Amino acid sequence: MSINSSAPARGLFIVFEGGDGAGKSTQVQRTSQWLQSAGATVLTTREPGGTQISEELRSLVLDHGHGEIDARTEALMYAAARAAHVQQVIIPALDAGTHVICDRFVDSSLAYQGVGRGLGVDAVAAINSFATGGLHPDATILLDISAQDGRSRRIANTGGIEESDRLESEPDDFHERIRMAFKELAAENPQRYLVLDATEDIEQLQSQIVTHLTGLL
Q1: pTM score, two decimals?
Q2: What is the helix, strand, coil percentage profile of the chain, to 5?
Q3: Exposed end of the chain (fewer CB within 10 Å): N or C?
């Protein structure tokens, strides 16, 4: 006797990218709420992070006070945190039919370490391909913002006091290189990327995101 059963449809892997202060966290939350209101099961997560070891690595690589971290070590720490995140959290959730919304993924490493730190996009892509097993987002939302606007937003969100991690405290020219790197990645992958002006109204941004994702669902 056979039992009719079907595996759940694979979940959608949605990633939000952009410079610091672009408003990714806000749109991650709103997008999750929209999907849940439509009856979907949703997991929101972030990088580096998402697992105990990944959160420990996040602290080591982003918090001040852990000594000097050279560019190669930084890139490998991000990749290690990502490997645990993908294997332990993201892939199991997607396979179970859960939509996964992630604040940053591989493209952040390509931008920050590949371009910002000068390691080269190809080199950083190679270690992250190994770390992720070749996993790619189904959709990447890029919230584009200038370094100056991003810094102003971060300061405003902390009551006028600039509280920056190791990467946020880099000078504006570093963050402008990151911005250009993201734009180039988006131009090379137009089928995957939705590029939005992060200075637009929050509701306008969410409306454009919903329209884009509805087409994928």
Answers
A1: 0.90
A2: 55, 10, 35
A3: N
Residue 4 lies in a domain: no
What residue has token string 């902390």?
158
Does 6 reside within a domain?
Answer: no
The residues facing 143 across adjacent strands are 18, 196
- Give the CATH number, domain containing residue 49: 3.40.50.300
Whether 64 is in a domain gets the answer yes
Distance CA 132, CA 2 (A): 36
- 3-class state of residue 64 by DSSP: coil
**Number of structural domains in the chain:** 1
Quote the CA–CA distance of 79 and 119 in Å, as a whole number: 14
Domain boundaries, position 65: 13-216
Tell me how far apart the 2 most distant CA atoms of the chain are, in Å. 68
The total of other beta-carbon atoms located within 10 Å of residue 75's CB is 23
Strand order in the sheet with 13-18: 42-46, 99-103, 13-18, 139-144, 193-197
Taking a C-beta distance cutoff of 8 angstroms, is the pair 13, 141 a contact? no
Residue 62, domain member (yes or no): yes
Tens digit of pLDDT for each residue in 54-113?
999 988 888 777 778 899 999 999 999 999 999 999 999 999 999 999 999 999 999 999
